[in-house]
Amino acid sequence: MVEQRNKLLFIVMLAILIVAGSFYSFWQKNTVAEVASSDGVAVKNESHQPEQSDEIFVYISGAVHKPGVFKASPNSRVFDIVAMAGGLTAEADVAKTNLAQGIKDGMHIHVVDKLPVSNEHSATTGTTKTNVGNKVNINHADKGELDTLPGVGPALAERIIEYRQTNGSFTSIDELKNVPGIGSSKFDKMKEKITN
Hints:
Order of helices and strands: HEEHEEEHHHE
Distance between the termini: 122 Å
């Protein structure tokens, strides 16, 4: 009878150990899975974060004292680059330069000159015009004035202004042929009506 009780006690103890072992194993597995899962999320999130550089490079040309390439922080603006370039010259046309514009890596800022003082003045107001005589100044004419040239429409006028902003003032009227869409025949039609 004692032997039977001992056997029963042994079986109960064994059953308790098996249940406890199973529970511990299950708990261990869940904990490891949770840790692995959270690590996986952390790694995934980390890998998708874009690398942000602490510095960018910007080229400034035109009516500034020291044109060139400058290193700046990504949240800089045009006026910061102008200051790095020694400030605007007296000839700079501030109205045509957005000093508050944000900058980006590889950007080219071209500060245009003011209109040159010409002998052509309005009799009533004394204001300076961008065309001398009957000729349109390709370095200072706006879109509307360029549109009056033979063979130039709004789209081509836009390209002329874009070329001017990117490459600086035209050094000769022949340089106008470098603008996409202006071939020799189109240039021949307008060359008598333009000046730089």
